[in-house]
Amino acid sequence: MTTINVKDVSEGDVLSPFGGKALGDRILKENENFPVTLDFKDSGSHTSLFFNAMFSVLKGIDDSSIINDIKLINETDLDVDTYRRSRDTFLDKKESTDSHDKL
Question: What is the pLDDT of residue 5?
Answer without folding.
Answer: 95
